[in-house]
Amino acid sequence: MIKDIIKLSIFTLGSFFIYGQPILQNYTSENSPLPFNTVRCIAIQGGKKWFGTDVGLASFDGNNWQVFTSNNSVLSNDNIRSLKVQNDSILWIGTMQGGLFKKSNDSWINYNESNSGLNDNLVRGIEIDSSNNIWLATSEGVSKFNGQSWQVWNVADNGLPTNNITDIRTGFSNEKYISTINGGLFYFDVQNNIEVHSIVESGLPDNSSIDIDIDSTGQPWFATPAAGLVTDLGNGGPWARWNITNSPIPTNGLTCISINKEDQRIFMGSELFGIIIKQNDVWQSYNQQNSDLPTNHITAIVHESSHVKWIGTFNNGVIRLEESSTNSKDIELPETIIYPNLVRAGEIITVKLKSNFNNVIITGNYGYKYISEIENNTIKLPNNLSNGLYVLQLKSQGTWHNIKFMVY
Q1: Cα 49 to Cα 37: distance, rounded to the nearest angstrom
Q2: Structure confidence at residue 5 (pLDDT)
Q3: In which domain, by residue range, is 370 found?
Q4: 161-175: per-residue pLDDT in tens?
């Protein structure tokens, strides 16, 4: 979500670990057997990659494809919303309306509302804890399946603030972190005692969260649709938050999160800004403007290795992204960096500077120039800027610095 006023930060960092232009391979329904171009979820099982699409399940081993739909398998619903690998042979599949499927080699089992204790046929998230219990995020609460019996937590039976569950992740001590839409976060301890954390109860920045991942220290990280990136520094707070007003993140609306285990880089997906990456105080992105990414609308990110990622997109298929890394050297940043670089005419820009800038010129379409001034570290963009690419020119100590931005 882009607010009416976007703060555009310009500042100098010391150095960063840079990744060069990635190598992208884009698999779509036009150039491969992928059954549909919207890929909601991805799982890796050995050398095989599984892709859940709106119209079927596909696997790819680098050479060969297999596609499973209601026409050629026991899948009763082709709209795949979640995937989880249990071992080399078992794949759990959550669907939009068909419940949960267990695929074990060529054997299939379906668990749904009518034949099991599953509380809802929409399965958004699947997690397996250290006791091999299957945990499910549904739109009617939380379900747990131990292979024999079912247990359900919901508003009616357990007093949860909402049944609208989006994701579940298991912590290092077998605790559960559960995200919701408009219900805050639910923490289950090892005895399944519940703590609810919300804006009112614990100062949580956003009561909605879309996706969760756990870093190497056991700390949970949450991708939110309106508050940016959030992490829990304790156990139910204090919370740390990165948004467009306090960090380089270009949007507060995140769609997914996945932490690279080797270097702990946090990969985030978005609808408008592609892939956003955070490593400590260093930020990077892959988008249509700086790479061959076919779309900025990212739905899923999975790490095959430290430099190979599989990216699900909305309506542009699945992408194999291989990063081209420099050696582990610190490289000096350009003197000025601008972000976010997508703004509207008339908005206020807040400028954070290492040195004083005393002149500002905005050069626009067809070479038109707009003269502006910095007042209390802000620049107000002219209301008559049309859509297009502009250059913000700032003069400091006799030197002009040019930074590009886009008006939409």
Answers
A1: 16
A2: 34
A3: 337-407
A4: 999 999 999 999 999
Task: State the pTM of this model.
Answer: 0.78
How many C-beta atoms surround the C-beta of residue 316 within 10 A? Answer: 21
Asked if residue 281 and residue 367 are part of one domain, the reply reads no
3-state secondary structure of 2: coil
Please give the radius of gyration of the chain, using alpha carbons only, rounded to the nearest integer. 23
**Is there a single domain that holds both residue 130 and residue 56?**
yes
Q: Which range, of 108-112, 233-237, 330-334, averages the lowest pLDDT?
A: 330-334
Whether residue 148 is found in the same domain as residue 167: yes
User: Is residue 176 over pLDDT 70?
Assistant: yes
CA-to-CA distance for 288 and 311, rounded, in angstroms?
14
In a domain, 6, yes or no: no
Instruction: Tell me, yes or no, whether 145 and 195 share the same domain.
Output: yes
68-89 pLDDT per residue, tens: 999 999 999 999 999 999 999 9
Residue 344: band (very low, low, confident or very high) from pLDDT cuts 50, 70, 90? confident
The 3-state DSSP class for residue 367 equals helix
Q: For residues 309 and 347, state if they share a domain.
A: no
* Rounded distance between C-alpha atoms, residue 13 and residue 332, angstroms: 8
Strands 388-396 and 282-286: unpaired
pLDDT digits (tens, 9 = 90+) for 187-226: 999 999 999 999 998 999 999 999 999 999 999 999 999 9
How many Å apart are CA 5 and CA 153, to the nearest integer? 40
29 CB-side CA count, 13 A: 17
396: CATH: 2.60.40
Structure tokens at 120: 């809802």
Are 71 and 117 members of one domain? yes
Q: Percentage of the chain surpassing pLDDT 70?
A: 82
Note whether 287 and 316 are same-domain residues.
yes
Give the count of alpha carbons within 13 A of 364, CB side only.
17
Tell me the two tokens of residue 394. 């700032």
Question: Does residue 287 lie within any of the structural domains?
Answer: yes
How does DSSP assign 172-238, residue by residue? Answer: TTS-EEEEESSS-EEEE-TT--EEEE-HHHH--S-S---EEEE-TTS-EEEE-SSS-EEEESSSS--
